[in-house]
Amino acid sequence: MASRIYADRKIVIISIFLIVGGIYLLRLLYIQVIDRSYTLSANNNVLRYVTQYPARGLIYDRNGKLLVYNEAVYDLMVIPRQVKDLDTAELCRILEITPEGFDERMKKARDYSPMLASAFEKQITKQTYGYLEEKLYEFNGFYVVPRTLRSYPMSIAAHILGYIGEVTPTQIEKNPYYKQGDYIGISGIERSYEEELRGIKGLKIRMVDVFNRDVGSFQKGRYDTAAVMGQDLYTGLDAELQQYGEMLMKNKRGSVVAVEPSTGEILCFLSSPGYDPNLLVGRVRGKNFQMLNEDPVKPLLNRAIMGQYPPGSTFKMANDLIGLQEGVITAATRFSCAGPGSSPIRCTHNHQSPLDVYTAIQQSCNPFHWQVFRAILNDPDYGSVKQRYDVWRNHLLSMGFGRKLNTDLAFELKGNLPPSDAFDKIYGAGHWNAMTIRSLSIGQGEILATPLQLVNYSAMVANRGWFYPPHVVKAVGNEKNATDFTKKRNVITINPEYVDVIRKGMAEVVESGTARSVKIDSIPMAGKTGTADNPHGKPHAVFVGFAPIDHPKIAICVIVENAGFGSTYAAPVASLMVEKYINRKVKRTDLEERITSYNLLNN
Q1: What digits encode the pLDDT tens for the residues 359-375?
Q2: Backbone angles phi, psi at 69, to 5 degrees
Q3: Whole-prediction pTM value?
C-alpha cells in the first residue's frame, strides 16, 4: 500500500516538473522564434539606433518667394564605449580639430554617457562628410547623422524670421519631445511656429559589423519610422518691399513696419541696424552671435516690437478722437494757439489761429491738442479727474495703446499707458489734474508706444475704426489653411464718423501740411509727422500714414532714432515705401538717393 502511494506521488512530482519545463520551453520558443522584440534588447551592442531628423518647414513671402529653406549638414556621433584602436590624428585631420579639441569632445561625450550616442562634431559640411565617409569604417564607435540647417537666399528680415539654436536642459525638461542636440526656434516666427515647423522625428535601426560598418537595416526596417517634414509657412511679407526698406534704413537706427489694413498682414517688418540672418547659422553661429551681441549699435535688438518710444505728434489724433467721442469738441470747434487759454504749451509753427481740428492736425498745432486734452479731463459729466482719465485711457486701450496686440511674434512689449493709480502714487490722490500731466496731450511724458502699435493705430484710422491683429503668417501647411488672425477681433470704442474727421486731417498733412514735401503725385496718401523728444539725445523722427486714402492697401510707421524732424527723415522713408509697394518701382530717385546717403548712427 505504501509503495503504491509512493509511486503515485512520484508520478505527480514528475508531471509537475514536466509541465513547468514545458511552459518554459514554450515561452522560450515564443521569445526566440515568434516575438522578435526581445532581440532588440539582446543585440544592443550590434544595433545602432539612428534618429531621423525632419527638415523644417519652408517659409514663403506673399508672392511665393522662398525666404527660408534647408541645406544638408551632418553630425558626427560617438558612443565612447565602442571607440577602439582609433587613429586620432587622422580623425583630427579630417575634422580640422586639434588633439586637445578631440580630448575635450571625448570627455564631454563620456560625461554624457559612455554607452549612449552623443554629438562629437556638429554641422559638418557636405565636403567634409565626403572625406569622412570614405574612412568612417576605420573609426569604431563613430557614425554620422544627417541634419539640415536654415539658409536665407535673400539675406533679409532677420528679426521677423528669427533663428534656431540647440535646446537647453530647461527646454528638454519641459518638453520630452526634445533630446540633447536637438534644435529649436529661438526668436521670430521660428519660435512662434516651432511646433508647426519642426516636423516629427523618425528612427532607423541599423546593424553594424565589428568594423563599425553599416551592414543593413534590422528586420528589413520593420521597426523603423520615417521622419515627417515640418509644415510650410506662408507669410504676408513682401520680400521686395522688405529688401527696399532695409536699404533705405541702412546706417540709421529705428524701425519700419507696414501692414495691409484690410487683413492685418505684416508687409514689412524691419529693425535697423539689422544683420544677415545667415550669420546665425551653422558652426559660426556662436562666434557671430557674440560679435552681434557686443556691437554698440545693438543689431540683435528688435526695435519694431521692443523699442518703446514717445509717439510725439502722431498721438495727437488719438486725443482728438476721444474728444469728439466724448462730446467735448466737435469738428467745428476752434481753439487759439496763442493767449492764456493755450498756455503753458507753446506753438512751434506759424499758421492761422484759431484752428479747427482739421487744420490743427494739418499744422500739428500743440496748443490746440493741449486744449482738447484739458477739455477731456475737465469734462463735467464725470465726477473726478481720475474718472475722466480712466475714460480717456480706456479709449486708448481699445485703439491698441498700452497693451500687447498679441501678434504671432514673441517678446512683444506693451509700451506704457499708466493707469490713474500711478499718478496717485506720484502726486497723491486728488493732487493732480490735466495741467500736471499735460505732456500726454502731445504724445510726450509717460506715454510710450512700439512701432507695431503705431502702425496698428494707422491701420485702425485707415479702416475707419477697426483692425485685425497685426500678424506675419497668414497660412500654415498650405495657402488655404488660414491662421486664426483672419477673424476680425478688434473694434475700437470710437464712432466711425469721428474717425472720418481724423482721416480728412491726415490727408491735409500730406496734401498741404507738414508732410507736403513727400507727396506722391499718383498716390493719394494720408499721414502725420512727429518729432518725439528724447531724454537721451536728439529727438526721434516719426511718421504714420496709409495709402491710397479711399481704399487703403498699406499702413505704415517709420521711426528714425535721434534724427530730428519727422518731416525731414521719417516721412520720406514712408513715402518711398508706399510708392515702392503700390507702383512696384520708385520714380523719385533723387529723394531715394538723399535718404540712402544719410548716415545717422553717430547722432
Answers
A1: 999 999 999 999 999 99
A2: -135, -175
A3: 0.87
Dig out the grid coordinates for 541 from the structure: 523722427
What does the domain layout of the chain look like in residue ranges? 47-79+112-235, 239-597
Q: How far is residue 361's CA from residue 368's CA, in Å, rounded to a whole number?
A: 9
CATH superfamily placement of domain 47-79+112-235 = Penicillin-binding protein 2a (Domain 2) (3.90.1310.10)
**Among the listed residues 452, 451, 447, the one whose alpha carbon sits nearest the alpha carbon of residue 407:** 452
How many contiguous H segments (helices) and E segments (strands) does the chain have?
A: 21, 18
Query: How many Cβ atoms from other residues are within 10 Å of residue 119's Cβ?
Result: 19
Class of CATH domain 239-597? alpha beta
pLDDT in tens, 448-489: 999 999 999 999 999 999 999 999 999 999 888 888 787 776
Per DSSP, what are the bridge partners of residue 77?
Answer: 119, 143
Distance CA 49, CA 338 (A): 82
pLDDT in tens, 319-353: 999 999 999 999 999 998 877 777 788 787 677 78
User: Are the C-beta atoms of residues 336 and 353 closer than 8 Å to each other?
Assistant: yes
C-alpha cell at 333: 470747434
Q: Provide the grid cell at 430.
A: 486728488
Beta pairing partners, 166: 183
Distance separating alpha carbons of residues 284 and 447, to the nearest angstrom: 41
Query: For residues 507 and 549, is the Cβ–Cβ distance under 8 A?
Result: yes
> Residue 255 contacts by C-beta under 8 Å, 6 or more apart in sequence?
270, 271, 272, 303, 304, 307, 451, 557, 558, 559
